[in-house]
Amino acid sequence: MVLLVLLLIALPLLWLGLRRRYRQRMRAQRIIWEVPDNLSDQAWLAALNTQLKRQLKSRGEQDATRLFGPEWVDYLCQGYPKPRPDLLRPLGTGLYQPGNDMSSGERLALQRELLRWVRHNHV
């Protein structure tokens, strides 16, 4: 009887916790997917940087919002398991190099890496 009561209490709490984690994960992923794909490479990279820095600012990480270039990429790579700086590099350099075209595959790879970063950092 006690086991049944514990199950009746624990299962709804577990379900609510899992649902909350799912909602947080989806909200975090949305910050990456909200950036329109039809933008030029520079505008697309600027929009991604803006989205990331806006989220970091809302978490109180003011110093991160002032970073740019290689320092910004280094910040993204720290405390993150198996970072791919080669994929994140356009966020630090692509804004400042006009005519640096990214393929759709490179854009997708960058989005996937940012999704990994967002999930790991609970942004």
Describe this structure in words.
It is elongated, with a radius of gyration of 18 Å. The protein starts with a helix and ends with a helix. It is mostly helical. Helix 4 packs antiparallel against helix 5.
Q: Please compute the radius of gyration using only Cα atoms.
A: 18 Å
What is the tally of helical segments?
6
Topology pattern, helix = H, strand = E: HHHHHH
Question: What is the helix fraction of residues, given as a range?
Answer: over 70%
Task: State the end-to-end CA separation.
Answer: 42 Å
Given as residue ranges, the uncertain stretches (5+ residues, pLDDT < 50) are none
Beta-strand content estimate: under 5%
Oligomer: single chain
Q: What's the total count of β strands?
A: 0
Q: How would the global form be characterised?
A: elongated
Structural class by helix and strand composition? mainly alpha
Mean pLDDT: 85
Question: How many structural domains does the protein architecture include?
Answer: 1
What summary fits the major beta sheet?
A: none
Short description:
This protein has helices at residues 2-33, 41-58, 62-65, 70-77, 85-93, 104-121. The protein has 123 residues and is mostly helical. The model has no long low-confidence stretch (mean pLDDT 85).
